[in-house]
């Protein structure tokens, strides 16, 4: 009965493809990627402040510890907050932290800001909103819950498309969790599966106040153009703000673009000034120390060996930084460089596919086998989505074979009994190197949705430190060790059978999942 619902997103207007401008990478060392700071702020940090996590349990336990020890701010952006016991425990941790802060100071110093997607967070009778309302009621001055609603879901489209299917039009997909000056970047949502048996990626940036300030401001900016959850479960916009689906769409998107770009550009300016100040002061310190003939303890802050670049993609607002940087990285990767690229949903944009097939680097692409796809076993039409991904995968594999690129471009399927796979990002190994010097980690899946429909954020981590490079290498190896190489025989297996109607519908709807 509901098969036709998959066609509903076709009512949404198409979005033109934009090609990234050409850009040459500097030739020297890992920091040949300095060109990225022409687009976004550059945060130089010490590699000892970066910790790569490997498991959902580790991620969940860290979230709880960080919430309980927060003294000033808790900022969490996610697609949604689940409604199970583990999620309730997170909410209880927030309540405990707010309560302690009130008791200690008389007025709470801790501020909690939560950004979720409106459609996903409102799904069902018990949902993200009902989970958070008690916090709003008890701590109205300290807690803010913002629900982003895409401006593309409006009018007849909003009226016709039912719950769950309306999420295909566009979402708030950013996942960032920060506590005081500690920041967790991930692709994981705040849901029990992501705390137990849904494999993702997670990186903790410790004692990084400038990075924490940036993401706080980014979440605030998106929150300002989002619906504000009220204590009675209603929502309203901030006073004077254009409504995302009732107001003028162009005006709304222009305001949103301005708010987000203000955050990016002001942080860029701050970091450039800080960099210049640090450079001059270090020169002066070095000069005075050489005159003294000895170094006073703690006189010089260690020079950074790792650089963080936040990459933002919000095509509905005309912001395409992540797309530009990703395309440039793929374009400029040299012969014999290796790129390990992973996505839980293999549905690359045509531009990314063309670059992978037409450039010189070696690619190892990790994707979900049908059994670990998040939609495996789903009811109704959604249950056919893993088959649609198999069909997309087979088409890409056939193109690789037609171009005789099987050695250079290799597909690998992640498989793990009782688990699902949601990891995304890439690791870049320069030619002749056994360790990666760059990784991308965050929310984008490299698909059409990530590029054109949703709000996305990830970071590029560039490092010259061997110990951190080893951490990133081990993370990559742990994921790829649970995979098998795709060959023609893979698609002859019974579980790879794709029904005719799925083959016919997939080209029409592939831009919506």
From TrEMBL:
Annotated region described as Disordered, given as residue ranges: 280-300
Main localization (coarse): mitochondrion
Record's catalysed reaction(s): a CDP-1,2-diacyl-sn-glycerol + sn-glycerol 3-phosphate = a 1,2-diacyl-sn-glycero-3-phospho-(1'-sn-glycero-3'-phosphate) + CMP + H(+)
Entry's EC annotation: 2.7.8.5
GO aspect biological process, one term: cardiolipin biosynthetic process
Ranges of Low complexity composition bias in the record: 281-295
Group of enzyme by EC: transferase
Chain ranges of the PLD phosphodiesterase domain: 168-194
MF terms in GO: ATP binding; CDP-diacylglycerol-glycerol-3-phosphate 3-phosphatidyltransferase activity
Cellular compartment(s): Mitochondrion
Keyword Transmembrane helix carried by entry: no
Signal peptide positions (record): 1-19
Pathway membership: Phospholipid metabolism; phosphatidylglycerol biosynthesis; phosphatidylglycerol from CDP-diacylglycerol: step 1/2
Keywords: ATP-binding, Lipid biosynthesis, Lipid metabolism, Mitochondrion, Nucleotide-binding, Phospholipid biosynthesis, Phospholipid metabolism, Repeat, Signal, Transferase
An annotated GO cellular component: mitochondrion
Role description: Functions in the biosynthesis of the anionic phospholipids phosphatidylglycerol and cardiolipin.
Family membership: Belongs to the CDP-alcohol phosphatidyltransferase class-II family.
Name recorded for this polypeptide: CDP-diacylglycerol--glycerol-3-phosphate 3-phosphatidyltransferase
